[in-house]
Design a protein that fits this description.
- The protein is about 55% helix and about 0% strand.
- It is built from twelve helices and two strands, in the order H-H-H-H-H-H-H-E-E-H-H-H-H-H.
- A two-stranded antiparallel sheet has the order 1-2.
- Helix 6 runs antiparallel to helix 7.
- It starts with 12 loop residues before the first helix and ends with a helix.
Amino acid sequence: MKSNLMISWEWGMPHLSNAATKAEFGMTSNVARSKNPEMLQLLKRVTMTVYQVRSVEVTGDLYEQLVHLIGVGKEKKLVEYKPHRFMSLTRVFQRIIKHWNVLCLWYEERANKAIRDRSPTPSPFPLSNSHLLVEQLLSLMLPISALNVKSQAEKANQVDVLFFAYKVMVTTLGPEASLRKHDATRENPTSYHHSTLLPLVTKTRSLLSDAFHSRLFSRYTDREVMRTCSYVWEMQMLFHPHAKNPGDPLVEMVKTCGKSRKLDDDVIERNQSV
């Protein structure tokens, strides 16, 4: 569209954020080309868990009964995982964490039933030693999914999208930023210090930061991108009630992106003046 029709056309925020997350979360069928093979292995264990709980018939309605007994909501089963949808993966992780105790009991009873029936021992809970890992990854995923939702809503808060993307880049993907916990509230704003993040979470966070920069925030650091991209999102900020002077957050974001790319101070100052 750019070369033949000469249209100044760009992908929208939903596509950019979705494209920036899929590969970095290992959401690909090609193991050899995966940027995050450890995450791909985790996703296989997640898929196995969902399949086993939804498909094993010998346990009957045990899962539903355990959900009711423990009192963790009205959901009767795990969410099915769709590999091409990042927000679908977020919902899967949410349900797994919410029903963690149910899953542990379900696999335990499944093994006990095999003993009673003198049947072969079934495979154990694939995620049994990964509770903290899944929790930290969910904490990383939720703000990005929220950005996807906000950027697709045809509402007045569309002017919030770029501000929200800034927030994700700084507070969620910043290498030394504390990661807000998935269940944190205003009354209890708990978070993970960056030094306590598991290696896979730290790696995935770094990959996501690079992906978001290359697809979106390179407009503040790369001179070639500056010359060719449009700045519609930045102009939308003029309609934001809290951005009477949109230049201030933009200047700060240019500085933040430049620091994250380890640019010299004079280069950052030059980019801020553009």
